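Office hours follow-up: a student asked to see two folded examples consecutively, so here they are.
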Amino acid sequence: MNEKGGKSRFTEGKIFQSLLRLALPIIFANILQTAYQLIDTFWLGRLGANAVAAVSLSFPILFLVLSLGGGLTLAGTVIVSQYKGAGNQRQVDYSSSQTVFVIFFISVFLAALGYFAAPPLMRLVGAGPEILTESINYFQVTSWGFIFLFMFFVFQSLMRGIGNVLLPMYIVLATVFLNLVLDPLFIFGYGPVPGFGVAGAAVASVITQGLSAAAGLFILFRGKKGIKINRADMKPDSSWTKRMFRLGIPASLDQSTRAAGMTIMVMLVTSFGSDVVAAYGIGSRILSLVIVPALGFAMATTTLVGQNVGASKIKRAEKIGNLSNKIAFFGLTGIGLLMFVFAEQLTAFFVPGDERVIRDGALFIKIMAPSFGLLGVQQVLNGVFNGAGFTKASLLISVFNLWIIRFPFAYVLSNNTELDFKGIWWSFPVSNLMAAAVAFIYFKMGYWKVRTIRRRHINSLQK
């Protein structure tokens, strides 16, 4: 389907096909991104448990940094998608240039901060003397990769904003295969290449991230794939930067809040012993797999809603939200029911032979799995709100889900009822239900549509 009259192809045609065309490559790219961690863990495991521990300590801090980058680049997706829907190619290019400009300086600052703050940060998260040096080296090398990682995030988000999700996926696929080769090369060394040990995994990642960032920037500067960035547009623009931060900071806090919430849950779980921790870990892995398609549809929904809001097709944007909502609810409910049936087998796959962990882990999955559809509803409706430019709504729903419902319920039920640690399990479906209900009610109230129409009317009067 070609574009006509400057309008995006996603502002017309069949919504279901558009959703699938956007969501499936995003889901696959997200799966590929997790391959980086799996590859690193596989090769580092050959060095021993200390090597894996040295890298694992960095994950909470790295996740917080990536949350900041992901939130700010989401702002780029929203802004570009709305201008794309409005058929304003000049603003698509200008906004893309500004996004690259702002994120570049933020990434340089974070890279330098991460490098020099690595020693106290690693001590803060509990690195013992046996892994302190390796954990510091790994984090320092990884910190310089923030520049390349953020630049690729920008490319990925901007391409997503105009609906081009295949190109970033191909680049991620190529770099994952390259990382598969570079990891053992730089960890163990070969021929003239010295082995760097734990830091070698970071060196391999930085190289692949650098290549992906270079490819992305080359495509953006060349301007043959729907966006052309220009050096002339890369200069301070305070009004544009304020708009980016107004959209991006709530999205960053949204992701950071989730990370902090899960960390608090882990602290609660650890008080019940190692067997419960193992059961929780298995359930969390299952949950992380389910979130991948949910996030894929949420990101696709953000792009579609953003483009249609930009084209002033508010009714079509609402139809997109309704359809995404149904797909997420029924699709993930079906997956949840399958996991309910095969809960014991799934748990036994991770911990064969440990009957108590298999029993507790299977119970966690059985309690949580039927609510996966509700989790999907919350995610895709957050995608609707983000696409309409109301990232604060997504933040507030996430805070409500994790901090007002899930953690308090988990604490009260596990410490003050006969459910014991099973109370933690029950906090998941309860919080999924209530968060989905709040998101759905807000969506149906239509306040997000009224605000969108009013804001666009004010902007038109100011022109």
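And the second, which I mentioned at the end of office hours:
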Amino acid sequence: MQDASHSPLDAWLARLEAAHPVDIDLSLERVAEVARRMGLLDARVAGRVITVAGTNGKGSTVAMLEALARTHGLTTATYTSPHLVRYNERVRLDGQEADDEVLVAGFEAVEVARRGGDPVSLTYFEAGTLGALHAIAARGPDLAILEVGLGGRLDAVNILDADVAVVTTIAQDHAAFLGDDLEGIGREKAGIMRPGRPAVLGSTALPQSVRATATTLGAPVHALGEGFQRRAVEPGWAWEGHDAEGLVRRLEALPDPGLPLDNAATALQALALAGVALDEAACRQGLTSVMLPGRMQWRGQWCLDVGHNPHAAGYLAARLAERPCQGRTIALLGMLGDKDADGVIAALAPVIDAWVPVSLDGDRARSADALAGHLEAQGQAVWHRAASPGQGADWLEASLEPEDRVLVCGSFFTVGAVLAAWASRAQTATDDRSSEGAT
């Protein structure tokens, strides 16, 4: 059996990581030129394209869009980032992660086009986006759902025109690239909108610049609390919005998907504007079946969430407060150095009894000791410090009481590392059982 650590896909990913001098280089000229060479701009990659931008809530909105579209019988393709454990998570075709061969074929097509004239340098994310679009175009699904990686206007996915543009929330994050002015951030996120095509605004607290951009473009606005809304009913919740013809549609007694209901309502509105005739039974099925690893993902005593800014941490704190436990709540926290650790800690502090800060690897890493300093400055109890998320999880497993619970949060890298450690342990146990059976 081929060693997965030396697979063709891993070789391509290592090559892409080393190919461009910087990780993030916000521009569309280079990626659009390679897309033109690949023929990705000559014809539609899917029947409809929904592009989702925002600071928080993108992943859950995309997941619900996919689940709802599939229960309505549509073929789908999604592109998201980053991944938690496997790169394959970023591209899903008809609800399944793309296999290695599909991804490698995309990277090969990107490389041929990149060199098919004056060579063009691409970042890891740009090459990945083009490879994903190659896979989507080859499939030609009814609906492609694209998640913006960073910003919007200059993000690589914005080389395609969205039939429906979604902006979920706006908060401060990625300040080194987007700045800390919310109006400016809003303009960047709203850059995915197109003239005359609907824009869905999934928060009641967006900067004025988002709506102003839509107005300037002549993009019809469907805003939460105005063009569409949700309300509590018994049982569940209800949605009201408009379809692509402008007719009012209502859905009653919808189930809680375990993800933010604002994002669920936003997904329903975007899907309706993409021309899908929403069926109440199909919507219930889609909301019941949606799964999104790393977002309020419970595994026994453990809750894993990739929230890494104060806005996301506030949502986490509210959800944990709704679900009290008899024991202690311990946070395993790992954060990158460019994130607002003080804001995240302050938002979570009311529901956390003790903390286990962990170190992350990489150029943007923050050490457990550095995080502990932020925690102690706010009067928080630091229970233990660990050199990695996996080591922190191992220590906690040996220290927890049955009534305790753990929140793993602060970064995709933190949650991904814990999930990977658990998966590795499970695989080792399986291999050991197989070996015992063979003897």
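Two things to take away from it. The chain is about 40% helix and 15% strand. The longest strand covers residues 248-254.
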